[in-house]
Prior knowledge:
By secondary structure, the protein is an all-alpha fold.
Amino acid sequence: MEILIPVLILGGLGLLFGAGLAIASRTISVKSDPRLEAVHSLLPGSNCGACGGAGCFGFAENLLSGKLPLEACRMSTEQIKEKIAALLGTKFEKKVKTIAVLHCNGGSKVKDRFIYQGIEDCVSADLVLGGQKQCRWGCLGFATCVKVCPFGANVM
C-alpha cells in the first residue's frame, strides 16, 4: 500500500506530460511540404553542392521555393529530372548540352613554353607562370581533374 501512492502519482504525471507533448507537437510543429521528401528521394544523393544548394536536400528546398531551376542539378539524369518535373506538375525541357571548345586543342597537341620539372599536378604547374603550355586555357596534362572527380566524369 505504501508503494501504490507514488506509483499512481508518477503514472499520472507521465500521462499528463505525454498528453502535453502530444498537444504541443501538433500545435507548434513545423509544417513541411510533402513534395519535399518525394523530390529529395529522387535526387542522386551525392550532396556535391554544384547546384548552389546545401546538398541534395538544400537543392530540393530551393527547387520547391523557386530559387533554383531543375536544370541546376548537374548529377541527375534527364529521366530523373522528368520524374521530378512530373511530380511538381511542370514541364521539363531537354536542353542541348554545351561543351567548352579550345581552339588550341589543349593537352598534348599544344606546344610547351618551357620544360616543367616539378610536382606532377595541375595546381602546382599552374603556379609556375600559369603552366607550361602555350595555350593558357588548355589542359596541362597532369590529370588532377581525373583524380579528384568522385563521379568519373573526366578521362585522360
